[in-house]
Every structure is written in structure tokens, then in C-alpha cells.
Amino acid sequence: MTTQIVVPPMGESVSEATVAKWLKKVGDAVRMDEPLVELETDKVTLEVNATASGTISEIKVPQGGNVGVGAVLGLIQEGAASVSAPTATATTSAPVQKPPAAANTSAKPASDAQTQGASVMPAARKAAEDRGLNPYDIPGSGKGSRVTKEDVASYTPQAKPAPKPAPAARAPQQPSGPRSNADREERVRMTRLRQRIAERLKDAQNTAAMLTTFNEVDMSGVMALRAQHKETFEKKYGAKLGFMSFFVKAAILALKEIPSVNAEIDGEDLVYKNYYDIGVAVGTPQGLVVPVVRDADKLNFAEIEKKIGDLGKRAKDGKLSMDDLTGGTFTITNGGTYGSLMSTPILNPPQSGILGMHAIKERAVVVDGKVEARPMMYLALTYDHRIIDGREAVTFLVRIKECIEDPERLLIGV
Q1: Is 325 a domain residue?
Q2: How many independent structural domains does the chain possess?
Q3: Which of 80, 161, 227, 271 is at 20 to 30 A from 196, Cα to Cα?
Q4: Is the peptide bond preceding residue 350 cis, with omega within 30 degrees of 0?
Q5: Helices 390-405 and 220-237 sit at what angle, rounded to 10 degrees?
Q6: Catalytic residue set
Q7: For position 230, which CATH number holds?
């Protein structure tokens, strides 16, 4: 009996995906529920599992092919049946096309890597691209010989022999034409996630009347409170007490006071949200994603820290679901984790506001008439001026500043 490997429903507004990589090759034995292939959508990477045990008898769509919901990716022959070579379907399926000028002599076609059974983790693929390496040249040490990010980091490409110097008496040859950059450049197709990020950010710039207002906050109070209770907090709740939970709590208090920052424009209507789903931007090897902490106003500090930690881990492992990324009424992004001192974040449509946190640096400030060194952080609020006035934006940011500088306010909600 033959079982089809079918593209499952991928969530609302997602109708197409790209075959990122096959985890099995033709002839491999598979078990029920074992991951077979990874699909990349414009939001997440998802795995398609086997619905029956048997042997991969045919791969219909190779790596790089585009597929829709319900498309047949391949076939599983139940039992130890004989396998056939991939049919012409795999050849005729539309792989990602690359211009000839970008050809790299070291790169292998996706179908060739598939035939060899090579498997590269998404983080490893990105790390290899950053180093200008072909990930399929790197030996894999992961499960099923998968190439991991650590394999890329420890891989040393074989050095090419240096060219022999030309005889001294020989006159140098003049180039016959313009020098080609083909041997100095590599053209790589953007992932669906990167394309979606680019599309959404450009749409935000084209649609919203974006403006950014700044302030600075003294982190002394939060840092002292955190240092005093972090060990007890971690022992009791099994989660580290970070800064993000303070900013989430402060943002919710400010959103309740300035509801327009928690609203969005829908045609000619303003939609005010009476719930607080806070998006927390997370950097991943594939790009920036914004998983959502649902009903954050109903969570305590420990629940917020646990939720953010879980979402961040699953984001970096490529395990987020569509539901984790949809919705959201307001976003917080922390460029300070990468050392950013100040930036102007871009709105996450259709939201009307995004808070940017930055690096904590000791600066000389005047306190009670005296100059002191204090741990200071710049805050940035980018907002849609079509719905939020400047007075509201400034007031919103001041409220966050007040809550962070006097964190006891967060406990009594003032």
C-alpha cells in the first residue's frame, strides 16, 4: 500500500510554502510520525511527519520547489518494498531559479544534495551562507548526519593552492574587458521569511505616518530590585528575572492610560483593543520574528518570564506555530542585547506603536543637584501619527520611564 506525503494546512493567510530540505532520501525507512521534510513559509518553518511506516519510494518535489496546501510531496511504500528513482515530476517541479551569473563552482544543486541524503539545519544553513560556504560540503555530526551550526563553526575549508607567479620577463597581460564579479559574489535567493519581513517593513513605511520620540530611563531601581530578589525568584519559579518582564508590565500600564497606542486603523475605523497581547521581537538565524505573549496583563512576572523564555527558545529552534506569531496589539524590541545604543524601530503592521529598548550604559547625570554615574538606557517609541498624537506618544513614554525608575509602581498599578 502506498501513502502520500501531503502538504498540511499551514494556517490562516498562508497558502504556499517552499521545500526547505528533505530529512529523508529515496530508499530510507521511516516510522509513523517521524519528520520527513521541512517546509518554509513566510512566517515559520514547519515539519511534515510520516502518516505511515514504510520506505520512501518517491520524492515528487525536490528541495527549493514551491508547493501549495494539499500538494503531494512524495510517496511512502508500506513495508520493505523496492524503491524507484525519483520520477520526472521531481525534475519538472519548479525549483528556485538562480541567475547564471551568480553560479558558484562550489555549490551543489539542491536535488544533488537530496540524492546524497545531505541534511542541513536552518541555523547551519545561515551560518554557512555568512561564511560563504556550501553547507553540503560540511560533514554533519547531528542526528541522521544532519549538519549543525557547530559543524559549520568548526569546519575549515580546504585551502586552494596559490597560483604560480608569472615569469619576470613576461609582460603583464592587459584585461580584454571589464572584470567580472562572478567569482567574487554569490547570489542567494531570499528565504520566504526574509521576503515577508522586507514586505511588511516596506508596507509600514509606505502606509503609516511613522514618527519616533525618545526618552532615557535610569535603570538603578530595577537593577537593585532584580539583584536583591533574582536568586529567590529563580529558585521559586524556575525562571530568571530579566528586564523584559518589567517593561512588559510598564507598557501595559501605559497602554491602559493611552489606549490609542493599543489601537489600529481598519479602513475608516479606529479599532481599540481591550486586551493586551504583547509581541516580543526575537532574533533568529532566519531573521527577526515577533512571537506574542497572550493576555500579558493577566500574567505575573514569573509567568511573563517563562512565556518569553519558551517563545524565544522555540523561535531559535524553528518550532514556533502560526498561532504564536499572529495577532499582537503592541510590540517591544530590545536592540540592547546586540549593543545598540539608540535606534528608530519600525512598526509591526497593523499595530500603531513599538517600543525600542537599548543598551544600558553608565552616564553622568544630575541627581539632587549632584553629578552621579547612573546606568541609563535610551527608550524609543515609534508610533503611527495618523492615530496617535505627539502629546499621547510622549505621555506614553514618560509613563514607562516612571514605572521603570520606580518599579514599586508596577506592584500597585499606578
Answers
A1: yes
A2: 2
A3: 271
A4: yes
A5: 60
A6: 385, 389
A7: 3.30.559.10
